[in-house]
Amino acid sequence: MASHILIVDHEPSTLKTMEAFLGRFGYRVSSVSSAEEAIRLLEHLEGNGPVNVDVVITDILLPGMNGLDMTDRIKSRWNVDVMVMTGYTPDYSYEAAVSKGASDFVFKPIQLEELNLRLKRVLRERKLNRERLEMMDELKALSITDDLTQLYNSRYFYIHIKMEIDRFNRYGHDLSLLFLDIDLFKIHNDTYGHVEGDKVLVRIAQLIRSCLRKMDTAYRYGGEEFTVILPETPAEEALTVAERLRAVVAAESFPVPGALAHLTISVGVTQYIREESVTDFVKRADAAMYRAKQAGRNKVTCVWGALNSDLSHIRQVNTEKPRAALPMAEKASDPEKSPVPDTAPVAIGYYFLENPSGADISGLIKLYRLAGWWTDPTDNPAMVSGIVRGSHFFLVAREGSTSAIVAMGRAISDRASDAYIQDVTVDPVFRKKGIGTQVVSRLVSRLKADGIGWIGLIAERKTHLFYRPLGFSPMADAVPMLKLL
Description:
Layout: E1 4-8, H1 12-23, E2 28-32, H2 35-47, E3 55-59, H3 67-77, E4 81-86, H4 94-99, E5 104-107, H5 112-144, E6 152-153, H6 154-171, E7 175-182, H7 185-192, H8 194-210, E8 217-222, E9 225-231, H9 235-251, E10 254-256, E11 259-261, E12 265-271, H10 278-294, E13 300-304, E14 313-317, H11 328-331, H12 362-371, E15 383-384, E16 387-388, H13 390-399, H14 402-416, H15 428-431, H16 437-450, E17 454-456, E18 466-468
Parallel strand pairs: 1-2, 1-3, 3-4, 4-5, 6-8, 12-13
Antiparallel strand pairs: 7-9, 7-12, 8-9, 10-11, 13-14, 15-16, 17-18
């Protein structure tokens, strides 16, 4: 494309001569008679796309704004070179023109051949400078981009996460982080080779991108580990993103020689805490990911609060495929004969240790309504005289959506924080072992801090507030948990 030259001079004869001369060399030439007209033209071009003027050739002595002030205005706003023309006068110097950003200084009367040579030099330097900047941009991109997956690399991850933390400190927007790891990836590599393993990494990177917003950024942290920064996102929403990522990868088929392989990911989720270090933030997300692996892989686990803090809560999302809807009576007609397997994901809910006759289940009903499972007690076989057995609730929770379980978890966690421990009447099984209310309180506090399992909350006779691990079994199985104290 021909270079675009803009000539600014108040003498019509000069404009006409220069237009004709430069046009002979294939330049695209425009001309105006004042600095103000030149600025308006550039603004008009800017309003319709990139400013495509390469060089402005201007006289210094102009009506209104002079050529040097115009040069200063142009260089402050646009990537346009300026050549300054002037007669022999002591009022302006080469140094003054260069200090305003001019690329060259030409004396009048203009020698057209000399002008053409100087213009060619300015255009050549302009091209070289553009190529240098493009090369620097490419080198910068290479330094922060993973060559295989084309995601950002860990170097840029730490640069960007510090920037997002600065934004958090200024504006207070939520900031969440995902830490992902491909489950059993080494076995896949050993079985099919590193070439096939690389294909998996590339495809999973593409799947991650497909699940994110424009403001979210994904990184290959190292090996088969990935991270995702989610600005302006609370942990609850980050859990939704993480579960979407987990489900998309689990549903994907990865072609390998003669077969289709299926892989899963474990995802850790956490939210930034004001004034914590970058290292602690990343470590907590990493720890959440490892808890997901320890829970059986293909899981999403969230850690709220600092590690080793009484404010820390571990929460794991139900990652099983929902089973076909069955009548509640059929699913939970005899829960003691159909226990939840130990491999089931953690769900958060109520558990009644003995017949909770007369127990207040208003909170539980609210949670059923929140999850969309409650209409009328008579419509649900799990409801008997307004009472719900915890085992029934646990089965219902397993059938629910991830978002519903997360919502229930938050609601129950909040209520558990205000539990009336002093009103708990210790069961005879505990009494025989000399375990009193204070011990139960200590157990609750310890388990709440460590996030061992799911919260059960009833502050009535014959019931206890305690965490419970995966699955369920007779109440006596809770006793060994006291060894954790």
